[in-house]
Amino acid sequence: MLGFLQQPVMVTTEVNLNMVALTAVGLLSRLWQLAYPRAVVFDEVYYGQHISFYMKRTFFLDGSGPPFGHMLLALGGYLGGFDGNFLWNRIGAEYSSNVPVWSLRLLPALSGALSVPMAYEIVWELGFSHCAATGAALLLLIENALITQSRLMLLESVLIFFNLLAVLSYLKFCNSQKHRPFSPRWWFWLVLTGVACSCAVGIKYVGVFTYLLVLGVAAVHAWHVIGDQTLSNVGGLGPPSPGWGDVPSILWQVRVLCHLLARAAALVVLPVLVYLLFFYIHLLLLCRSGPHDQIMSSAFQASLEGGLARVTQGQPLEVAFGSQVTLKNVFGQPVPCWLHSHQSTYPMIYENGRGSSHQQQVTCYPFKDVNNWWIVKDPGRHQLVVNNPPRPVRHGDVVQLVHGMTTRLLNTHDVAAPLSPHAQEVSCYIDYNISMPPQNLWRLDIVNRESDTDVWKTILSEVRFVHVNTSAILKLSGVPLPDWGFRQLEVVGEKLFRGYHGSTVWNVEEHRYGRSQEQKERELELHSPTQVDISRFMARFSELQWRMLTVRSDDSEHKYSSTPLDWVMLDTNIAYWLHPRTSAQIHLLGNVVIWASASLATLVYALLFIWYLLRRRRRVCDLPEDRWLRWVLAGALCAGGWAVNYLPFFLMETPLFLSHYLPSLPFQILLLPVVLEHISDHLCRSQLQRSLFTALVVAWFTSACHVSNMLRPLTYGDRSLSPSELKALRWKDSWDILIRKY
């Protein structure tokens, strides 16, 4: 019974020493003197601010990308014990003793180091030799721009890591598909592909290009699976017969369906869920009010500790007749603002000669103020307090809005607005005892209602006010008024408006039930300070994602900005850091031998692919079918990966930098040894030709290593350089010097 105990338990394993060595040198090249320089380097000034916000759990809004990358950098700060107390205001500023520089730069460095053995694995999984795989890894290892970027608190190396992980995982999944589909290994690599794709998108939006590439390749393979008639060849049943009712055909249909559902779940559903998880953790961490609150809606602000949440603590949910409210415009452009009025009136005659009603001004004011308070009044009653029990206001009810401090009613009429003459003027009515009767009835339209009997709710309800007499809609035009309007924003009655727009939508931000009928007591009540459950994750996620996509970025030119064509030609670089006392410096500058060779390899691949394709059309197959499929897959993932991560930048109008090219560069480098091996194996006809070609490749790789070593002072910044030495290291300057000399 216990006979198995009579023999020792043996475990055997295989260790790829190539992988071990590549991992070791990758770690050495990225982690060596990682804390140097102990100063803010280029975009560390940008990412460092976000890390401090995470450490203090303070909400911020960043339009550069989703939060996963920032959270990874913040994780390094958390592991290093960073408290977030550092002023990130200047490139080159020395880090204080409380900043764990090594920990903050650790995750990008590890990502860059692990990308080296991953390059080896990708080329090997594509079916090429260990020599080609080692060459691809060594090229990534010695490429100076990749080293520089991965040794700093930046996100490009992390994005490259997950891009490569997504491709590698999918290749391993495809190879598992050939042997044991639906095995634990098969599921592991399929799921990891989806997770890696989601992580790439979660770091930067440009990660979606690699995700779409993997999805495209997976879709082609899924199409082939549908036509694979060996799927039902289990248990000796044989391939499916032409009929659809026998057992083999049913089994084939079931297995095909299972394959398709598994791919859809792992490559579509799972990435979406993981992406949502990033935002869930992000919002869970950033629970405190911060500097970007005003950009968000009232509901979002009220979900944060402090700020608006502190102001709205304990306020009632349902708006009733007699409620005192502040009304914030949902659009928030050009700045967030609140419906406002004051004692001043519109001028009798505007500068262009048009006349006005000389009524009390109504504006939108971008600051909290006591003049932002309004009272929701029942037109059929005179009282300005809430009944007991309160009588809630519902969708479709007609209301009057009474300005709290002046007790004048919100009004609009057939008088042109001051700066938008196509729209009606909005005012608070003053009775001048002339033939201008008040028109102060407004019908409440709850835009996000679930039924026509919905109650107007604090913060949650988005409402429009439709003028009963003229059908005009209360709207923020966003135009600043002249000095007579104190540069506040114009509010109009838009009569010709069609459809939904945020400028016509308002929500109650602060709310209390009015208790004082006398004006003096009411004014004291309005001056006194004022929680609604708005913890719905999907609503907060949707708003935050939309704000991140639409927030205005700085489109001003930068002295280091460049064009996509400059990147391929390496006609640009970025000075990242300069030592304040010596001439040591760090530049983002690529290895010209590797960059030029990779571009040439891409061109050679494209020409060879077209040539083979044309010959196959003529029934001439230069490559066996398995090698042709391997050649096509390598091009789809490597050349395709470069193209989808590079070409979209030609359509972008924001300032671009050399660092934007880095996510596409590894794909091009992976293609280089693939093309070299193909030329050696299939285009060199004799042994002599192969020997000569091998010698050329060795000489070429030696020159790439030499250039990498030459650029080492600019990569690590650990040696002072004279102006002439610095100029000599830039390849175009060196080329110009040679031309002038000879």
From TrEMBL:
Record localization: Endoplasmic reticulum membrane
Recorded family membership: Belongs to the glycosyltransferase 39 family.
EC number: 2.4.1.109
Domain MIR: 316-379, 390-447, 451-511
Known role: Transfers mannosyl residues to the hydroxyl group of serine or threonine residues. Coexpression of both POMT1 and POMT2 is necessary for enzyme activity, expression of either POMT1 or POMT2 alone is insufficient. Essentially dedicated to O-mannosylation of alpha-DAG1 and few other proteins but not of cadherins and protocaherins.
Entry-linked InterPro entries: ArnT-like_N, MIR_dom_sf, MIR_motif, PMT-like, PMT_4TMC
Recorded metabolic or biological pathway in which this protein acts: Protein modification; protein glycosylation
Chain segments annotated as transmembrane: 59-79, 127-147, 153-174, 186-203, 209-226, 260-285, 592-614, 628-649, 661-679, 691-711
GO terms, molecular function: dolichyl-phosphate-mannose-protein mannosyltransferase activity
Catalysed transformations (reactions): a di-trans,poly-cis-dolichyl beta-D-mannosyl phosphate + L-threonyl-[protein] = 3-O-(alpha-D-mannosyl)-L-threonyl-[protein] + a di-trans,poly-cis-dolichyl phosphate + H(+); a di-trans,poly-cis-dolichyl beta-D-mannosyl phosphate + L-seryl-[protein] = 3-O-(alpha-D-mannosyl)-L-seryl-[protein] + a di-trans,poly-cis-dolichyl phosphate + H(+)
Entry keyword set: Endoplasmic reticulum, Glycosyltransferase, Membrane, Repeat, Transferase, Transmembrane, Transmembrane helix
Pfam family, one: MIR
Name this polypeptide is given: Dolichyl-phosphate-mannose--protein mannosyltransferase
GO cellular component: endoplasmic reticulum membrane
Bilayer disposition of the protein: Multi-pass membrane protein
SMART domains reported in the protein's UniProt record: MIR
